[in-house]
Amino acid sequence: MTPEGLERAASAIAGARLLVVSTGAGMSRESGIPTFRDAQDGLWARFDPAELATERGFRADPARVWAWYEYRRLRMAACAPHAGHGALVELEWNVPQVAVITQNIDGLHQRAGSTEVLEIHGSIHRVRCLDCGAPGERPDVGRDDDDPPRCARCGSYLRPGVVWFGEMLPEDVVRRAWALVERCEVLLVVGTSGLVWPAAELPHLARRNDARVIEVNPEPSEVTPVADIFLQGRAGEVLPTLVRAVARQRGS
Ligand code: APR
Predict the structure, then answer these.
(1) CB count, 10 Å around CB of 251?
(2) Domain tally for the chain?
(3) Taking Cα atoms as reference points, which of 8, 21, 50, 6 lies closest to residue 120?
(4) Which pLDDT value is given to residue 211?
(5) pLDDT tens figures, 121-138
(6) Tens digit of pLDDT for each residue in 38-61?
(7) Which atom in ligand 1 lies closest to the alpha carbon of residue 84?
(8) How many C-beta neighbours within 10 Å does residue 164 have?
């Protein structure tokens, strides 16, 4: 990350009325949650997503898929937001509106205190009925039954409230997210490879609407060619530095 890049990014954010932040799995990595594509410990390196993160996989073996999400949920609940999450909350003190659009299902942005979070891939902390779609109540941990809990309304299995491969993203969340990106002055993209659509569309949409695109990532990604400013580094280190530079530029 060059000092010039940092000052240019801080100046763009300091002058924005609406800052949208788009985060991927890399944003949670420093909290101890593996990304999807990490070769050594990435989630998809060890599991076949088609068997575990699809409706077909769930219907084929509900207990196995439920157990995998419970294992991930409890691991995520044991993790804490890092300084990068806190920096995004601090940006809310210097920018009139900060909206976070996240592909992450771990809830760390909300736990850090971000007040506007759009979870376009859903949340591991929510459950809903596999068939009637009614939101469900997760029973307390420590049930002796391996099968997933049942829907109080129709009796079908409850499933994790996440978007599985091949599923549509939540329509209302997507509509709100895309509308925010269309009218933001700055889109800050943190910790995503930019490989998975439609989230990968966001930097292109921002550029088409004359917004400045700033990327934070230790490695170049599919987003980098579309970014105006590339701040190379980890979210937990770059974002706090960026927030301090924004505060300086705003004289606060
Ligand atoms: N800080 C910032 N970025 C990081 C960090 C870090 N500390 N560590 C890794 N990264 C970057 C990696 O360089 C990579 O570009 O985070 C990105 C993670 O990319 P992916 O693993 O592809 O995660 P993501 O982009 O969120 O995946 C998109 O794929 O499987 C689906 O639904 C899943 O939402 C997920 C989607």
Answers:
(1) 6
(2) 2
(3) 21
(4) 98
(5) 999 999 999 999 999 988
(6) 766 677 677 787 789 999 999 999
(7) 1
(8) 19
Find the 35 Cα to ligand 1 centroid distance in Å: 5
Best residue among 103, 193, 215, 223 to mutate for probing ligand 1's pocket (most ligand atoms within 8 Å of CB) is 193
Distances in whole angstroms, Cα of residue 31 to Cα of each of 34, 86, 250: 9, 12, 29
Question: Which residues lie with the beta carbon below 6 Å from any ligand 1 atom?
Answer: 24-26, 29-30, 35-37, 103, 121, 190-193, 195-196, 216-219, 221, 234-235
Cα angle value 104/106/112 (rounded, 5°): 100
* Token digits of residue 135: 């939101």
Cis status of the peptide bond prior to 198, with omega within 30 of 0? yes
Residue 221 CA, ligand 1 centroid: distance in Å: 9
In a domain? residue 37: no
Instruction: Say whether both 71 and 134 belong to one domain.
Output: yes
Share of the chain above pLDDT 70, in %: 96
121 in active site: yes
105 Cα nearest atom in ligand 1:
34
CA of 37 to the centre of ligand 1 (A): 7
Where the chain has pLDDT below 50, the residues are: none
Question: Which one is catalytic: 82, 85, 121, 204?
Answer: 121
Report the pLDDT value the prediction gives residue 90, as an integer from 0 to 100.
Answer: 98
Residues 240 and 156 in one domain: no
pLDDT value for 141: 61
Determine the structural domain holding residue 109 and report its residue range: 3-31+80-121+167-250
* Ligand 1 centroid distance, CA of 34 (Å): 9
